[in-house]
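I'll show one example:
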Amino acid sequence: MKNKLYTSNKHKDELTTYALHCGYAQTRNNKTLTYIHSVYKVASLYEVEYFDTIKQARKYLYTGIK
C-alpha cells in the first residue's frame, strides 16, 4: 500500500502527517509547517511556534491564533 502525501478533504493542498514526518513542508499565509524533533513547527520570517499536535499547528498556520 502506498501512503498518501495529500489529504482528501476540502483542503486539497494539506499534507498528511505521513508527508510531514518524511520531511515535506506545507506553506500558507507566509508561514511554513514542518515536523522536527517530535514537534510541529510553524515558522515565518519573524516568529517560530512549536505545537504538540497537528491540529493545533494547522489552526495557527491558517488563522494565526493559538
In short: The radius of gyration is 11 Å. Residues 20 and 35 are 6 Å apart (CA to CA). Strands lie at 26-28, 31-36, 39-43, 48-51. The helical segments are 17-21, 54-63.
